[in-house]
Design a protein that fits this description.
Largest sheet: 3 strands, mixed
Oligomer: single chain
Number of helices: 1
Strand order of the largest sheet: 2-5-3
Number of strands: 5
Radius of gyration: 14 Å
Order of helices and strands: EHEEEE
Shape: elongated
Length: 73
C-alpha cells in the first residue's frame, strides 16, 4: 500500500500556448516534451493534440508532446 503518494495524471492542455502548458505541467511534476507546429485556419489557436492523452496515468518527470496550431499565416 502506498501512503502519501498521489497518482499523477496528464492534464488537459487543449487551447493553451506552449508556455502556459509548460507551467501547468510543471505544477503536476511533468514536463513539456517536443512541440510540433502547424498552420490550420480551421482549428483553434494553441495546443490541438497531445501525447499522452489527458487523464493518462503518468510518472513524475514524464514528458508530454504537443501539436500547436499557429493559425493562418
Amino acid at each position: 500500500m502506498m501512503v502519501g503518494r498521489r497518482e499523477l495524471r496528464v492534464p488537459e492542455l487543449a487551447g493553451l500556448a506552449p508556455r502556459a502548458a509548460a507551467l501547468k505541467l510543471s505544477r503536476e511534476s511533468l514536463e513539456l516534451g517536443a512541440a510540433s507546429w502547424l498552420r490550420e485556419p480551421g482549428l483553434p489557436s494553441g495546443i490541438v493534440a497531445q501525447d499522452p492523452e489527458p487523464e493518462t496515468p503518468a510518472g513524475k518527470g514524464e514528458a508530454v508532446r504537443v501539436l500547436t496550431n499557429r493559425g493562418a499565416p
